[in-house]
Inverse folding.
């Protein structure tokens, strides 16, 4: 069980910052999962350095939120990725999507910021759809998010 928890936490840390609802959510709810509309980028215009710093801080919270939700699941469910991923891994991603969208975008980089949010939303959707799918690598639902955030200068988010 410890190996599975570590593997999921590492994969999420390296591949996920999420989208959807706000708040802490519960172990059985998936905050933005039912939302068919993409998160809207706020009108705030942070500088690129501040945007990256705040974005990486959001991504740093994903594993912490995952572990908190995982701990609420019954022990035998904690070992089953079909349960743990939707109930513990996905909600923090949706929260991260909302938080990323709320950051706004550095002036002139609105399209890049939108692409990052969309890639994160797609990662969360991919993880919901395929809980036992790969969390890293080129076939991962996080591949695009990782590529975009790395190219933009993120550190933590580029490793989720």
């Amino acid at each position: 069980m410890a190996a599975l928890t570590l593997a999921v936490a590492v994969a999420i840390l390296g591949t996920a910052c999420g989208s959807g609802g706000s708040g802490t959510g519960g172990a059985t709810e998936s905050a933005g999962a039912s939302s068919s509309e993409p998160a809207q980028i706020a009108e705030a215009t942070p500088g690129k350095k501040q945007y990256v710093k705040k974005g990486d801080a959001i991504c740093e919270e994903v594993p912490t939120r995952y572990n908190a939700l995982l701990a609420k699941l019954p022990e035998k469910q904690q070992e089953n990725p079909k349960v743990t991923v939707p109930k513990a891994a996905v909600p923090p991603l949706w929260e991260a999507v909302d938080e990323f969208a709320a950051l706004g975008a550095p002036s002139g980089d609105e399209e890049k910021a939108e692409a990052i949010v969309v890639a994160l939303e797609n990662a969360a959707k991919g993880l919901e759809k395929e809980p036992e799918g790969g969390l890293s690598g080129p076939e991962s639902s996080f591949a695009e998010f990782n590529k975009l955030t790395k190219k933009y200068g993120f550190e933590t988010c580029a490793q989720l």
